[in-house]
Specification:
AMP binds at residues 32, 37, 58-60, 86-89, 93, 134, 146. This protein has 190 residues and is an alpha/beta fold. It has helices at residues 14-25, 32-41, 45-54, 62-74, 91-102, 118-132, 140-154, 156-163, 176-188, and strands at residues 4-8, 28-31, 82-85, 110-115, 167-171. It has nine helices and five strands. The structure holds adenosine monophosphate.
C-alpha cells in the first residue's frame, strides 16, 4: 500500500497530475478542494460553511477539514492506497493524518511537491478563472491571499516531511506528460 501526498502551491498542477497518477498507481484520489466544491454545489451544511472561507481564499478550519478527510478515507476501506491532493495544508492536519493512518497501521509513503514560480502560477490561475467558474480563481487579491495562506501555513510542511525523510520535489513547469514522467520517476523509486 502506498499513500502519496501531492504537494504544491495553488495552480501548480496537482489536480491535473492526480488524474494521471491515480490510474497509473491504482490510488484513490482525495482532493479536499474538490470535496468542498461538491458540497457547495449540493448546498450541504459543510458546503455552506466551507464557502465562507474559500470565497476569500482562506483555508477552511482544521477541525472541519480533518474530519471530512477522515470520513472520506473511511469510505474506501478496500483502497490500495491514497493520493492526497490539497491535504494536508497545515501542520495540525499533517499530524492528524499521521495519527489517523497510524491507527490503521498505515503511513504516508512520500510527499511529492510540484515546484513553480509564483508569478507564473498567478497568471495560470487567472487564466483558469476565465473558464473554471471558481470565484477564488477570478480575483487577483483572492489569489494572492491563497499564496499568503500557503506561505504561512502550508510551506512549513516541507520541513515536517523532510524531517521524516519523506519529502521529494520535482519541477512543475513543462508539458503535462513531462511532469507526470518526473513524478512517476520519484514514485517508482520509493
Ligand atoms: P484547492 O482546490 O486545493 O485549490 O482548494 C480550494 C480551497 O479549498 C482552498 O483555498 C481552501 O479554502 C479550501 N481547502 C482545500 N483543501 C483544504 C485544506 N486541506 N485545508 C483547508 N482548506 C482547504
Amino acid at each position: 500500500m502506498i499513500n502519496i501526498v501531492l504537494f504544491g502551491k495553488p495552480g501548480a498542477g496537482k489536480g491535473t497530475q492526480a488524474e494521471f497518477l491515480k490510474g497509473k498507481y491504482n490510488l484513490t484520489h482525495l482532493s479536499t478542494g474538490d470535496i468542498f466544491r461538491f458540497n457547495i454545489k449540493n448546498d450541504t451544511e459543510l458546503g455552506q460553511l466551507a464557502k465562507t472561507f474559500m470565497d476569500k481564499g482562506d483555508l477552511v478550519p482544521d477541525e472541519v477539514t480533518i474530519q471530512m478527510l477522515q470520513s472520506e478515507v473511511d469510505k474506501n476501506p478496500h483502497s490500495a492506497g491514497f493520493l492526497f491532493d490539497g491535504f494536508p495544508r497545515t501542520i495540525a492536519q499533517a499530524e492528524a493524518l499521521d495519527k489517523f493512518l497510524e491507527s490503521k497501521e498505515q503511513n504516508i509513503t512520500a510527499t511529492v511537491a510540484l515546484e513553480a514560480d509564483d508569478e507564473i502560477l498567478v497568471q495560470r490561475l487567472l487564466e483558469r478563472g476565465k473558464t473554471s467558474g471558481r470565484p477564488d480563481d477570478q480575483d487577483e487579491e483572492k489569489i494572492r491571499n491563497r499564496y499568503q495562506e500557503y506561505n504561512e501555513k502550508t510551506a512549513p510542511l516541507m520541513q515536517y516531511y523532510n524531517a521524516q525523510g519523506k519529502f521529494y520535489a520535482v519541477n512543475g513547469i513543462g508539458s503535462i506528460e513531462e511532469v507526470t514522467e518526473r513524478l512517476s520517476k520519484v514514485i517508482d523509486n520509493l
